[in-house]
Design goal:
Aldehyde Dehydrogenase, Chain A, domain 1; two-stranded parallel sheet; mainly alpha
Amino acid sequence: MSEHIVSSYEGQLKTLHSTVLKMGALCESQFSNSIIALVKKDEELVDKVIGKDERIDELEKKIDDQVVNLITLRQPMAIDLRETVSAMRIAAELERIGDLAKNIAKRVKHVKVDLNNGNFSLIKSASDLVQGNLKKTLDSYSKNDEKLALSVWSSDKEVVGVFPITSAREVNEIVAKAQSVSERWGNLSFRKRLTVLRDWASLLTREIDNAAELIHRETGKPLSDAKLEVAISIEHISWAAKFAPKVLSPQNRPSGLLMFNMHSQVQRVPYGVVGIIGPWNYPMFTPMGSIAYALAAGNTVVFKPSEFTPLIS
């Protein structure tokens, strides 16, 4: 191979390397800005993040084209071929990060809670861990630092979420809050309660892929199994919404011969607050029936998920 061809080939590899790093830097910025937009409810920043997602897609396509061009025209040897194909795979993962940043930004307007309190510290802890690992990964790629790459791989067990341990005082406060609204919820008609349940089922249906991904990451079960779990969990809610009026409405009973002139009726009234504990292996399906039936019956619910699978809750 002539010196000119070798030089040209190395130049193309450097260009590919540079494009991957450029895409990585943009993804870092997008993720960081999406978190800032979420915490500050900055709609201008939301639009900026969503608008730049197209640029990430363009860079992924550019990298794919560069890889195809290198393989077709240069026919690289094994070690160079691995580096070339790895660039394309890294680009695909970066594109997913870009999509996640865009999806976080899109949800900003739906967040009603104040994130400038204790909730912010949880989001910040999780996002700092993710951004730290992303930066180290890109640094290892930039410097061809195998040891740094392995340190990220081994330390990432993986970052799914960071949650505080709820104290006894906080549990009592949560139960008290549920108790304070239980009468109002219980006094709603079946129709109004079931409208809320159907809206909840519709929301979960729209988010079925995201919910399945969380279950997959927390439990390790295959995505197909996780998606099935979400689907049958939604069915629990739908069943409660459909049959609660029939099962829970007042029912007349015969009074018997001795009290033939009396009228007997069974009326079901809410307990108030119902506590439900979920397992780790079916973190959505197992507790969902109890939660849906309790809510349909007019109770409020305090749910305690497994400490191994808190995120899906």
